[in-house]
């Protein structure tokens, strides 16, 4: 006898709740089809369901995301860096307290050895006919952040060495929920022949029909749940083995919204608006924000950053603030709206010559107009860089490009090319190749759990009350 087992999954929603009613419609339709045919099925999420860019997730610290997954009766989830490193330790510790599904993360550990009750290293499922399925979950090892929040992410391969071997003797099928990224998933498939399925996320890769490496099928459904994933496994009861693996990612853009879910999100939105509507300051005049202009609010925010991090010099890009603020009451929801990024402060130690190179790059048109996607940045363009603790004297080339003439410290002296300074900035610049001198620094110190918008609140209270 041959039996088909069905697995549906979502990954990297990033609180894109406008899409969630379509997700609900697809899942409900798919599950109804399975019920009619009396098939076994399970529903998974692979992490980054939550993103504090959205007011609902900000107001509830991700608890609303759990409600929405409960409503669709998810079976097992793992979590990503947006759940793991954008919440304070206590908020993550209690994030899944009300979950009606299993949470599996094989490589998360609380630094005090008091792991939350919801945390499973492995989950075992059994089909109606007795096929045994072992589920593992892995999340990306951002330990520079996790350690500051009281957590540790152990090596994915160390954990797999232990649990894959264990499950290979106790289950018939092994499924890995991986919030590690495509290249890591491919390497795992090459190393572990006993893993039958890897359902991935984190790097937002889309595999419409999966990718087969050795005995493993790898799949992922892109980002923001524009696609929903499905895995179909065929088990041969006579041979007692898996004889076929299929994976699909379905574009759900044409699906009608599920009305029940739509109403639930509207209710959550109203509740979030009320929760975030507490006043920060009252002003008699508007607060101007310009992406390509050195404005007062950006200067004061950069000063606050320098004081907060105890840095010698600080710098922030004006594109971090998305909009101006009108006169009158400024509530926390307004702060969140104009500074929604899950971005933290960081300090790095650089020489004067390295800082000059950072400044030089940051003044170029290519940099200021760059439309960054990812690394926590949720804005449109990077915008003009604003400095504190240093005066940048610039001029223009005949072609209109700005260049650095000199950089002066508060005492009027120039930066010493060979001296080391502590530079405070946004952690977004520690990733990728935007500002290589910052990214390659060996002396990064991150400030958690505060986001830059918490420093904006402090700035408003101190300079705009």
TrEMBL record:
Signal sequence segment: none
Keyword Mitochondrion: no
Family to which the UniProt record says this protein belongs: Belongs to the 5'-nucleotidase family.
This protein's UniProt keywords: Hydrolase, Nucleotide-binding, Signal
Name this polypeptide is given: Metallophosphoesterase
Pfam families in the cross-refs: 5_nucleotid_C, Metallophos
InterPro entries xref list: 5'-Nucleotdase_C, 5'-Nucleotdase_C_sf, 5_nucleotidase/apyrase, Calcineurin-like_PHP, Metallo-depent_PP-like, Pesterase_YunD
UniProt domain Calcineurin-like phosphoesterase: residue ranges: 8-205
All residue ranges annotated as the 5'-Nucleotidase C-terminal domain in the record: 291-427
């Amino acid at each position: 006898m041959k039996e088909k087992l069905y697995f549906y999954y979502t990954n990297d929603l990033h609180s894109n709740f406008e899409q969630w009613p379509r997700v609900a419609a697809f899942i409900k339709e798919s599950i109804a089809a399975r019920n009619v045919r009396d098939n076994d099925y399970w529903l998974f999420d692979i992490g980054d369901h939550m993103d504090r860019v959205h007011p609902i997730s900000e107001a509830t610290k991700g608890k609303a995301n759990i409600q929405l997954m409960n409503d669709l009766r998810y079976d097992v989830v793992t979590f990503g860096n947006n759940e793991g490193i954008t919440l304070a330790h206590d908020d993550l510790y209690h994030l899944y307290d009300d979950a009606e599904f299993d949470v599996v993360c094989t490589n998360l550990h609380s630094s005090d050895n008091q792991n939350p009750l919801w945390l499973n290293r492995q989950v075992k499922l059994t089909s109606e006919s007795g096929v045994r399925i072992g589920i593992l979950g892995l999340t990306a090892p951002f330990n520079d952040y996790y350690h500051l929040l009281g957590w540790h992410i152990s090596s994915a391969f160390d954990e797999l060495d232990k649990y894959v071997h264990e499950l290979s003797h106790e289950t018939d099928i092994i499924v890995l929920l991986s919030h590690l990224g495509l290249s890591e998933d491919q390497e795992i498939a090459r190393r572990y022949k006993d893993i039958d399925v890897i359902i991935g996320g984190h790097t937002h890769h889309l595999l419409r029909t999966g990718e087969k490496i050795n005995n493993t099928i790898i799949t992922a459904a892109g980002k923001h749940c524009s696609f929903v994933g499905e895995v179909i496994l065929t088990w041969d009861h006579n041979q007692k083995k898996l004889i076929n693996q299929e994976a699909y990612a379905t574009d759900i853009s044409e699906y009608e919204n599920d009305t029940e879910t739509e109403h639930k999100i509207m209710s959550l939105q109203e509740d979030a608006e009320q929760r975030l509507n507490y006043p920060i300051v009252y002003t008699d005049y508007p607060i101007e924000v310009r992406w390509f202009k050195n404005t007062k609010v950006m200067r004061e925010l950069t000063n606050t950053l320098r004081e907060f991090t105890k840095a010698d010099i600080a710098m922030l890009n004006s594109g971090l603030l998305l909009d101006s603020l009108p006169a009158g009451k400024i509530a926390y929801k307004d702060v969140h709206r104009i500074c929604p990024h899950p971005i933290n402060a960081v300090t790095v130690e650089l020489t004067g010559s390295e800082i000059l190179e950072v400044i030089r790059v940051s003044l170029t048109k290519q940099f200021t107009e760059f439309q960054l996607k990812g690394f926590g940045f949720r804005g449109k363009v990077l915008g003009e860089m604003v400095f504190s603790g240093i005066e940048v004297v610039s001029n223009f080339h005949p072609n209109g490009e700005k260049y650095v003439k000199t950089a002066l410290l508060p005492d009027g002296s120039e930066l010493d090319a060979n001296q080391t300074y502590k530079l405070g900035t946004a952690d977004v610049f520690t990733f990728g190749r935007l500002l290589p001198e910052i990214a390659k620094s060996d002396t990064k110190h991150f400030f958690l759990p505060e986001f830059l918008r918490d420093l904006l609140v402090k700035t408003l209270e101190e300079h705009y009350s």
